[in-house]
């Protein structure tokens, strides 16, 4: 049986985000490892014109890039999962929560992970204390609002898990790898975060994404 092909890097944060959703929905996939040297090749750019990872390709030739778009597409194919609510008001709240992740969490969380984890890992540099302090202060204030939201319901879009929650992976758990324990400092955020990082879908990706032929 042909399975979805995921073009990316097993340790890349964006690839891990897509793979987490694939595991959450038990969708078999093949990881096609992409090295940095091929991302700007004509063959790669024909599928991903920005030369970035990841992208997916299905048996019928359908190609899709942009991480969150890929996740939405996969979830839309499995509506019974509820990862994208269909009822209009629930869907609106989901989109609100998804926008919250993109605009209020990702900017600072990603900068902190890049500064404290990725740059030291790949380039041997030390984190800039000024950058870390600035982004940590911003994220701390954002998480105050998260704590209020999560004090009202179990997940950020209501009582059911959605893509909006899972979009916080992998940056939320990678903060701790950089020595930043901010996700467990506020009670409601801590409860939500600990549940997310314990999900089998994320645990399957922590050491790197690998192909999964069947469940």
Automatic annotation (TrEMBL):
Q: Which PROSITE patterns match?
A: GST_CTER, GST_NTER
Keyword Transferase attributed:
yes
Q: Which GO terms describe its cellular component?
A: cytoplasm
Q: What class of enzyme is it?
A: transferase
Tell me what reaction this enzyme catalyses: RX + glutathione = an S-substituted glutathione + a halide anion + H(+)
In this chain the GST N-terminal domain maps to 2-82
Mind listing the GO biological process terms from this record? glutathione metabolic process
Q: Which InterPro entries match?
A: Glutathione-S-Trfase_C-like, Glutathione-S-Trfase_C_sf, Glutathione_S-Trfase, Glutathione_S-Trfase_N, GST_C, Thioredoxin-like_sf
Q: EC number(s)? A: 2.5.1.18
Domain GST C-terminal, by residue range, is: 87-215
Which of UniProt's keywords are assigned here?
Transferase
From what superkingdom does this record's organism come?
Eukaryota
Q: Which GO terms describe its molecular function?
A: glutathione binding; glutathione transferase activity
Return the protein name.
glutathione transferase
What organism is recorded for this protein?
Mycena rosella
> What does UniProt list as this organism's lineage?
Eukaryota, Fungi, Dikarya, Basidiomycota, Agaricomycotina
């Amino acid at each position: 049986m042909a399975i979805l092909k995921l073009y990316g890097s097993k340790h890349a944060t964006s690839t891990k985000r897509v793979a987490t959703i694939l595991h959450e929905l038990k969708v078999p996939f093949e990881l096609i490892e992409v090295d940095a040297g091929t991302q700007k090749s004509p063959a790669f750019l024909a599928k991903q014109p920005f030369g970035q990872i990841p992208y997916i390709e299905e048996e019928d030739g359908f190609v899709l890039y942009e991480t969150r778009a890929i996740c939405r597409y996969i979830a839309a194919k499995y509506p019974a999962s509820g990862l994208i609510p269909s009822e209009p008001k629930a869907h609106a709240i989901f989109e609100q929560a998804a926008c919250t992740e993109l605009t209020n969490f990702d900017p600072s969380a990603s900068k902190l992970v890049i500064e404290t984890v990725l740059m030291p890992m790949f380039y041997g540099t030390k984190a800039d204390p000024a950058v870390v302090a600035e982004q940590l202060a911003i994220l701390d204030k954002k998480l105050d609002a998260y704590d209020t939201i999560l004090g009202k319901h179990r997940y950020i879009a209501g009582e059911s898990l959605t893509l909006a929650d899972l979009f916080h992976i992998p940056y939320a758990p990678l903060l701790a790898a950089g020595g930043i324990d901010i996700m467990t400092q506020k009670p409601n955020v801590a409860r939500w975060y600990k549940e997310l990082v314990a999900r089998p879908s994320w645990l399957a990706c922590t050491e790197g994404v690998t192909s999964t032929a069947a469940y």
